[in-house]
Amino acid sequence: MSGIVGLTRRLSVVSAVSRDPFWALATQVVTSGANFLTTVVMVRVMGLTEFGRFSIAFLLIMVVRNFQLSVVLTPMSTVGPKLSGARQNAYRGFLLANSLVFSLAASSLIALGSCLAATILELNWMWTLFPGLAAANFTSNMAEFYRRHCFNQKDRQSAMLVEVVRYLVQLAVLGVLALGAHHWLSPSTGLYTLALGGAAGCLVGVRRYGVMRWNAPFNRAIWPRHWSLIKWLTPGIVFQTLLGPGCIVFASFFFSEAMVGALRAMQNISNVLQTPINGMQNIAANTAAHKWFKWGAEVLKHYLLKMAMAMVGFSIILTIIVIMYRNFIISITMGLHEDGLGILLALFCIANVAASINFMSTVGLQAMEKGKPITVGSAVGAVLSPFLIVVLVPATGIYSVPLARILAVMVSTAILLWSLRRELSWHQKDAQGPTFMCKGKL
User: Fold this and answer.
1) Which side of the chain, N or C, has fewer Cβ within a 10 Å radius?
2) What domain range is 196 assigned to?
3) TM spans, by residue (predicted)?
4) Alpha helices in 69-155 (DSSP H)
5) By the 8 A CB rule, do 234 and 70 touch?
6) What is the DSSP letter of 72?
7) Inter-residue contact 148 to 206 (CB < 8 Å)
8) Per-residue pLDDT tens for 253-301?
């Protein structure tokens, strides 16, 4: 009888774990699909020049999102699973305060920065964007916070609901503008559309957030654990930003707004390949931290290897398909027929394959709360990325952006893999797992 009970418990655990990737992937399909449809509508209605301006603003939001990952989301995913259930209410109060402060500060800074850029660089069109940019940044950050918190609490349906409501509102407003009042559709109204969608997602997230309370002693006790991650992850995020959205922002100094729009459009198509990788970001850090804390290095190693093989294999297959039919895909989605876009798309797809290995290496180091190797690896890649763009621009033109990303990510990944292997080998000798972390458990 006890054997049957034990088997039933194990099966229930396996069933719960197997649902995590499904819901993570399903949520990311909604996100990627909505962003892709938004790009298609804007490119077709506004053209590449106006879409290029919107893309610069949108990429600034993505830059802030990266910092949100290091300041709020990754510490939440790493520290949260190690807290006892009795402390979760206080932790929710701590997290919400962190997220609100970060989102307000980031939105203020991004608005001020866009005004300074408009003045210094004489970009008159930027003046019309900063109110919508600040609003879109705030609601997007908060909606992402609520979504990730739902995943961390294993409330997968609520995480999905936040995304579905958010993007249904966004696409509905965008559709009305595109079909009934396309002359009103501009980079500025596009940003307000993002803000409305984010606000709708926040309304759902607030209702699903759970009971919370403010506990000052607890906050003082938990902050050092967050800070130990933030102080290493934030510099790393600066470098990862230069490897990611920063590449195209940097490219805007060399290319016209229409060419920036083309870069962003091709990157958006290639990001469909990132769906499994982005989906796993919702749960990978939390799952890896749990495995490391409970079972140690050997289990963490097998998890990382399994996930890396699955994501890389899937990305390679889709990359081959996209490369074979690249011109058809570009034509039927964006309605573009310019020469060279197919090669640009293929290069972005190859960059995504390299990024998938980089991602799992980063997750492994985050799970062990080893932020320094992430910072070092990202720093090397970040220095290489703009340098390679400058070097490659005369010979390769617009192709320099994805080429620089491929090379920089490969170098960064090599450093991360070496660091991860060293850390796993060091801890693998201890069959009881990382006991030093248990001592800091609250």
Assistant:
1) N
2) 22-438
3) 21-42, 54-73, 94-119, 125-143, 164-185, 191-211, 232-255, 303-328, 340-361, 373-395
4) 74-79, 88-120, 130-152
5) yes
6) I
7) no
8) 888 888 888 898 898 888 876 676 666 665 677 788 778 877 887 888 8
Q: What value does the mean pLDDT of the chain take?
A: 82
Tell me the two tokens of residue 238: 């600066």
Examine residue 11 and state whether it is found in any structural domain, yes or no.
no
Burial 404-414 (b: 16+ CB within 10 A, else e): bbbbbbbbbbb
Instruction: Fill in the amino acid letter for 419.
Output: S
DSSP state of 70: I
Q: Which residue type, as a one-letter code, is found at position 318? A: L
Q: What is the DSSP letter of 399?
A: G
In a domain, 3, yes or no: no
Neighbouring residues of 155: CB distance < 8 A, sequence distance ≥ 6: 208
The answer to whether residues 329 and 336 touch, using CB atoms and an 8 Å cutoff, is no
Distance CA 200, CA 175 (A): 17
Q: What is the DSSP letter of 73?
A: I
**Phi then psi for 301, rounded to 5 degrees?**
-60, -45
Helix 400-428, helix 371-396: angle, nearest 10:
160
- Using a cut of 0.85, tell me whether the model's pTM lies above it: no
CA 267 – CA 16 distance, rounded (Å): 34
Token pair 């980079």 is found at 187
Positive or negative: CA dihedral 181, 182, 188, 193: positive
- Give 317: exposed, middle or buried? Use CB within 10 Å, 0-12, 13-18, 19+: exposed
Return the pLDDT at 21.
63
Number of structural domains in the chain: 1
DSSP 237-251: HHHHHHHTHHHHHHH
DSSP state, residue 185: -
135 band by pLDDT with thresholds 50, 70 and 90:
very high
The answer to whether the CB of 293 falls within 8 A of the CB of 81 is yes
Residue 23 has pLDDT above 80, yes or no: no
Contact 198, 142 (CB under 8 A): yes
